[in-house]
Write a structure and sequence with these properties.
Elements: H1 16-81, H2 87-92, H3 95-103, H4 106-111, E1 117-122, E2 127-132, H5 142-152, E3 156-161, E4 165-175, E5 178-188, H6 190-200, E6 203-209, E7 222-223, E8 228-233, H7 236-249, H8 252-257, E9 260-264, E10 267-275, E11 285-293, H9 295-345, H10 349-355, H11 366-415, E12 419-423, E13 429-432, H12 434-440, H13 444-447, H14 452-456, E14 470-477, E15 483-493, E16 502-509, H15 511-525, H16 535-548, E17 554-561, H17 564-571, H18 573-591, E18 595-601, E19 604-610, H19 614-629, E20 633-635, E21 638-640, E22 644-651, H20 658-675, E23 680-682, H21 690-709, E24 712-721, E25 726-737, E26 743-744, H22 746-756, H23 759-777, E27 783-787, H24 790-793, H25 798-809, E28 816-821, H26 822-827, H27 829-841, E29 845-851, H28 858-861, E30 868-871, H29 873-877, H30 883-898, E31 902-905, H31 913-919, E32 924-925, E33 934-935, H32 936-939
Parallel strand pairs: 22-23, 25-27, 27-28, 28-29, 29-30, 30-31, 31-32
Antiparallel strand pairs: 1-2, 1-5, 3-4, 4-5, 6-8, 6-11, 7-8, 9-10, 10-11, 12-13, 12-16, 14-15, 15-16, 17-19, 17-22, 18-19, 20-21, 24-25, 24-32, 24-33, 25-26
């Protein structure tokens, strides 16, 4: 029996109960403090992140407002400069007529657009007209602007600040496509300041720094510390004093980096700054300052922190009281059990069972479990003492058995004809068998303790993962200086919990097997006669090359010796074999570095070239022909002339698989044999991008059939006169009738028709059918609008064809409108003007489609022979929501009216647009709200049966 003496402490000055209460109190107080600090920090961080995001959003909105204001000012300047009455007097230098040209527009620009000043000047910078009050002309780089705008014909927008900040837009004034002067519009930032105030909800100030002419100490808006003056300010009675206070302690560069918080009259305020980009020649700096009152947010954070602290302290008090109430009773029982445990340690099991009564509670707690466990433990320890004595006897028997097993393992290790080496965690040898000692010529004492990788030149790549089974193949230098190939298997050795991990390495000598495998591999890839690569290796190499060079080029040269059969018959097969070896040797030594040289069988050789083109391949073939001619093969007393026929195929041009490439090269080789003189042949370029070509051929054929069989269908969409909702105009649209009777959108076949040149035939088909229908509809006052492609504008026979069709159909040309897009008309202006003028001379009218996409067309509007302007639908679609679209559409309508053109609004898809379009003076409207496209036969029921096929 095991006896243990345990010291017993009969009294405690500080009981476990109060220790628990004290430690838990300290822990809870620390947690309350920590949570309060973390809560305050989290609220503060969230507030700072929110303010940072708010500040970034304010910066974006201010810069976006500046950008929108600048873009709007540039568009207004472009529209003003496009006035037809401004260019000629400006070109003539007539300042009086220049003033009259813009006097009518100045009130609208000043009142509606907020323009402060308008300047008109010639190409020398001489001001010929000015309206309003703005910056002094001497303060503006007029000449620099004039040179830049006149030379580039590109509008210029800029922001300049001195005593105030103003936006400038300078655009060229063009006459017949040539710049004759420049127009400048000036506008202050009052609207931008108001918008920034409304969007941000903060007080906004505009400060300009660095100007010498604004240093007026008596001026209350002058901030001496910032060397700047407040040029604009919201709520001056509130904001001015705050800015004066902030200027004493804060700097503008620091405000640009991050907003600043300061106190004023018991309020917490946040001040941030946004820098405005200006001209590079201005030494002043201008800033938007935003003042936000964040008192409420700061007070909320402090109040939440106090609430967290109060709740935490209250929870701590309640928790400690509850813990004390719970622990008093159970701890008394626990002390009784604790006093009995030393008795258990001394082995007095019967005393324990007599001191703790065995009783069952209906609802046992942990103390009951501890008492019952103590009783059970006394029984188990008593039983354990008996078992320990029995196990001691069994352990002695097991030790003897393990000794026998150790002797068997040692015998097995020394008998096995493999390398067996055990290593510790550092890779040092701890065990080595006799076979390893014999092969290395070293005894065990010379090997133990040395590093495994130093002896066997292996294991270094697996040393850092000793717990993972791994395999590697290494060479080993034997004492006789011969190299042997050893396959090593490294596996972890199981170790006890307190032992360092180790591993065992088993090496198998596979030198003879590797030699046999190398010979088999050589025989599988080589031709035994010539020692070149064989057909199997060549095809595998070709497959790999084609996969590697999917986007590159390569070539296969197939070589067949001429009259080789006659050499065999005249001189014998051994001479033929010798010739094959000579040819193989010549090809390999001269071309082996360029690619793969192989003998495919018989007298056929092949050369694979990567990253090469047709020209380089032909040069190689010519080089091979010359090499063979210089070979001069002699057998006995007979000299044989060596020639060959070479077929050249390129990939991927002539094939996408090795089989296709070999077949193409074979065809080329036979063509070279047929030639007889050149000795080589390169296949012509085969189809490229077959799928795309097939698709294009398919649609070309569909279009051709549709033209021959009249399987196109004309659709019409009404164009309504907005004044009285009268519909006399219709736009002709084209569809293709499919086999199943469905309609095919022109998006499928028009691009192919443009590429193939069939678009001109389609235009003529549409013109012919439209004129046939028009001859029946014109008596009702109907007018049809037909679209012309850009290629038709370059058709020299268009005028004659149109004249012939008008005569054949009897249609009135005044009822025919030809539509061309703005892009086509402006891109090739001179050609378009000539063709349209010739068509107009026949009596047809012209419409300019998709107008407004590029405002450059305004300069050519007065020079194109057009009758209608169709405003691009993107402006009409956003007319109700975008103020800029309204300004542009109204300006286009006014300019068109000034040039005597009628306007048509596209994309009219809702009723709310109609009153607005009418107020702008737009004559016609077209869109799904006014009428959707329908078949021409359904739209006009009085068409004769002969025209019904159009449906």
């Amino acid at each position: 029996m095991i006896k243990t003496t345990v010291p017993i402490h009969k009294s405690h000055r500080f009981s476990l109960t109060w220790r628990v209460i004290t430690l838990s109190s300290l822990l809870l107080l620390a947690l309350v403090t920590l949570f309060t600090i973390l809560g305050h920090d989290n609220l503060t961080r969230q507030f700072k992140e929110s303010r940072d995001q708010h500040h970034e959003r304010q910066q974006r909105e201010i810069r976006l407002a500046l950008q929108h204001s600048s873009e709007n000012l540039r568009q207004l300047a472009g529209l003003t400069a496009a006035s037809s009455s401004l260019g000629p007097p400006l070109q003539a230098g007539d300042s009086e007529t220049v003033g009259q040209a813009l006097n009518s527009q100045w009130p609208a620009l000043q009142l509606e657009a907020g323009i402060d000043e308008v300047l008109v000047m010639d190409t020398h910078g001489q001001v010929l007209g000015s309206w309003g009050m703005g910056a002094s002309e001497s303060q503006l780089p007029i000449l620099s602007w004039v040179r830049r705008v006149i030379n580039t014909e590109i509008p210029l927008t800029t922001l300049r600040c001195s005593t105030s900040c103003q936006q400038f837009a300078a655009v060229p004034v063009l006459v017949e496509g040539e710049s004759v002067g420049m127009l400048v519009l000036t506008r202050s930032l009052a609207d931008v300041t108001r918008e920034a105030n409304e969007v941000s909800g903060s007080e906004v100030a505009l400060v300009v720094t660095g100007a010498d002419d604004q240093r007026d100490i008596a001026d209350e808006r002058y901030l001496e510390r910032w060397n700047g003056r407040i040029t604009a300010l919201t709520r001056q009675e509130y904001s001015l004093a705050l800015l004066q206070q902030a200027a004493q302690t804060l700097s503008l560069p620091s405000l640009l980096e991050a907003p600043a918080i300061f106190e004023s009259d018991g309020r917490s305020l946040e001040l941030s700054a946004v820098n405005m980009e200006e001209d590079a020649d201005i030494i002043n700096n201008s800033y938007f300052l935003l003042i936000s009152d964040i008192t409420e947010q700061i007070d909320t954070i402090n109040q939440d922190t106090r609430t967290l602290l109060f709740v935490g302290v209250l929870g701590w008090i309640l928790a400690e009281l509850l813990l004390l109430f719970i622990l008093l009773g159970p701890m008394a029982r626990l002390r009784r059990v604790a006093g009995l445990l030393p008795t258990l340690a001394r082995g007095k099991f019967s005393d324990i069972r007599s001191a703790i009564p065995e009783r069952q509670r209906r609802l046992p707690d942990e103390i009951d479990v501890l008492e019952s466990t103590t009783l059970a433990l006394s029984h188990q320890l008593e039983t354990l003492e008996t078992q320990v004595q029995e196990r001691g006897e069994q352990l002695a028997e097991r030790i003897e058995e393990l000794a026998k097993e150790r002797d068997f393992v040692n015998s097995l290790l020394n008998t096995a004809q493999v390398f067996i080496v055990a290593q510790d965690i550092t890779g040092r040898i701890s065990l080595v068998n006799e076979y390893s000692q014999l092969m290395l010529g070293l005894d065990e004492r010379s090997l133990l303790g040395r590093n495994f990788s130093d002896i066997f030149e292996a294991g270094s790549s697996t040393a850092h993962t000793p717990n993972v089974s791994q395999q590697e193949e290494k060479t080993l230098l034997m004492p006789d200086q011969s190299l042997h190939t050893i396959v090593w298997y490294h596996a972890p050795l199981q170790a006890g919990s307190n032992e360092q991990p180790s591993r065992i390495s088993v090496g198998l000598d596979i030198t003879k097997r590797k030699a046999a495998e190398a010979r088999l591999t050589w025989l599988a890839e080589r031709d035994p006669l010539t020692e070149l690569y064989n057909r199997r290796y060549f095809q595998n190499s070709l497959q790999a090359a084609m996969e590697r060079t999917m986007h590159a080029n390569g070539a296969v040269l197939l070589l067949d010796l001429d009259q080789f059969k006659e050499i065999n018959e005249l001189s014998g097969h051994h001479v033929g074999d010798q010739l094959l070896r000579e040819v193989a040797k010549t090809l390999f030594h001269n071309l082996g570095r360029h690619g793969v040289v192989a003998r495919l069988g018989g007298d056929e050789f092949a050369l694979l070239l990567e990253d090469t083109n047709a020209e380089q391949s032909v040069k190689i073939a010519q080089y091979i022909v010359q090499l063979l001619e210089d070979l001069g093969f002699t057998a006995g007393e007979r000299r044989h002339r060596v020639t060959a026929s070479i077929g050249i195929a390129l990939f991927p041009t002539h094939g996408h698989t090795p089989a296709d490439m070999m077949a193409s090269a074979d065809v080329a080789m036979y063509k070279a044999k047929e030639n007889g003189l050149q000795h080589w042949h390169l296949l012509s370029q085969a189809e490229n991008a077959k799928d795309e070509l097939k698709e294009r051929v398919y649609w070309v054929e569909r279009i051709r059939n549709a033209l021959e069989e009249n399987s196109f269908e004309l659709m019409v969409q009404p164009i309504m006169r907005l004044e009285d909702s009268d519909v006399k105009h219709h736009e002709v649209l084209l569809r293709m009738r499919d086999i199943d009777g469905s309609l095919i959108s022109p998006a499928h076949f028009i691009p192919v028709a443009e590429q193939s040149g069939q678009i001109v035939l389609i235009d003529r088909w549409v013109l012919r059918q439209s004129l046939k229908a028009l001859s029946q509809l014109q008596k009702r006052g109907i007018t049809l609008a037909v679209n012309l492609s850009g290629q038709s504008l370059h058709d020299e026979e268009l005028k004659q064809y149109l004249s012939d069709e008008l005569a054949a159909s009897g249609a009135d040309p005044h009822h025919l409108i030809l539509e061309v897009t703005e892009t086509v008309a402006v891109t090739d202006f001179s050609t378009a003007r000539g063709v349209l003028q010739s068509v107009r001379e026949l009596g047809c009218r012209i419409a300019l489609d998709d107008f407004g996409i590029g405002f450059s067309s305004l300069h050519y509007l007065g020079q194109l022979p057009i009758d209608y302007i169709k405003i691009d639908g993107s402006f009409i679609h956003s007319l109700l929501t975008n103020p800029d679209s309204r300004v542009i559409v109204r300006a286009i309508a006014d300019i068109a009216k000034g040039f005597g053109k009628q306007t048509i609004a596209e994309f009219v898809d809702q009723e709310a647009l109609l009153p607005l379009l009418k107020s702008y003076g737009i004559t016609y409207g077209q869109g799904f709200y006014l009428g959707q496209p329908v078949a021409i036969g359904n739209a006009f029921s009085d068409l004769p049966p002969s025209d019904k096929y159009l449906n």
